[in-house]
């Protein structure tokens, strides 16, 4: 009955640090929509951004910065992404490691965004 994910909502404590991470580190495009709302676009998906204490309604029952564990498939080879992280001085928490993705085996690295959400970036193994 469900075809695919359209968007999800990320709650942040620091809007500017969050925007910097998702655009500069992960390469997503910042979109402004509605009444000054922001989202990160990538592929056919987006992540809507909410600031803690200033969430748009309706909202999750407990919108909490740092509660997400997200896995993204890289648009470039994982080794190229790892080099990009190194050039930016972004620490890898774990990896590269073999994991099981939604549709096939993947090779992943893990890092943290400014709110300490766990971010996994992967390529098909």
Q: What keyword list fits this structure?
A:
125 residues, 2,3-Dihydroxybiphenyl 1,2-Dioxygenase, domain 1, 4-stranded mixed β-sheet
Average predicted confidence as pLDDT: 96
Q: Would you identify the regions where 5 or more consecutive residues have pLDDT less than 50?
A: none
Identify the strand order in the major beta sheet.
Answer: 1-4-3-2
What about the largest sheet?
4 strands, mixed
- Reported by name, the CATH topology is 2,3-Dihydroxybiphenyl 1,2-Dioxygenase, domain 1
Distance between the termini: 29 Å
- The gyration radius over C-alpha positions equals 15 Å
Level-2 CATH architecture = Roll
By DSSP, the count of extended strands is 8
Strand portion: 35-45%
Name the quaternary structure.
Answer: single chain
Tell me the number of helical segments per DSSP (H or I, 4 or more residues long).
2
What is the highest CATH level, the class? Alpha Beta
Summarize the amount of helix as a percent range.
10-25%
- Please, how many domains? 1
* Global outline: globular
- Class per helix and strand makeup: alpha/beta
Protein name: VOC family protein
Domain VOC: 4-124
Organism: Janthinobacterium violaceinigrum
Pfam family, one: Glyoxalase
